[in-house]
Design brief:
The chain is of the alpha+beta class and about 230 residues long. The chain has two domains: about 170 residues, no CATH class; about 45 residues, no CATH class. It contains four helices and twelve strands; from the N terminus they run H-E-E-E-E-E-E-E-E-E-E-E-E-H-H-H. Strands 1, 2, 3, 4, 5, 6, 7, 8, 9, 10, 11 and 12 form a twelve-stranded mixed sheet that branches. Helix 2 packs antiparallel against helix 3. The protein is globular and about 60 Å long. The N and C termini lie far apart (about 70 Å).
Amino acid sequence: MRQLLLTIITLSFICGATAQMGTSGFSAQSNVLYNDGYGIPWKFDFEMSMVGSPFFDTGYQIGSLKIMHGKDYHQLKLKINLESNKVIFEGKNGEMLSVSRPVERVSLQGKDGKESIFRAGFNSIDKQNDQSLYQVLDSGKVLLLKYVEIRFKDARSAYSGTDLTRTYRQIPTYYIWTAADGLIRAPSDEAGLMAIFPAHKNAIAAELRKDKLKLKKEEDLTKAIQFCNSLKE
């Protein structure tokens, strides 16, 4: 009985120490980023109710980031505000801080274990510039990138006239990056895809027919680019 009690106490101590180490690890990393001068307080401009969200994920995700032409930081609690194109991290006291410098790369670990990667540094196109963050859907000979534009509509309460509700919409646009052409709009049909991979027209046509892929759908477009990236030169 005494041995069992000692075992339980020991296990409790180990679990508590591990949790404390994990928490202090995140705090230490965010503190390094803050002390390097890259963290400024962040919050919404005013109080409001929200429908939808301007964030990639409303909760924090464990991840890493690289400052543009600068250092890498790991084991941070991060979220990405797609509306402002800002990376938010949790400070050591739980406060929300915005990375004050342009970010080159962000990696987020989802609850399902899936990694989401965002990159910047591409040529300007449409409304975006070289600091705009794109989600990487596939990489290889070409990159398949997703940019999300945030639009919103405000409505005030019919009763008070002051309470504000903001409804967000996330509108994705897809792009292809190649070393030769830089960033271009992703193709929405078979002819456009073949123009990027002219040496593999027959193989691409066969693959699209076999899997009945429609390039206007994100899942199908990703599968098509994955197939193209797997083709040998």
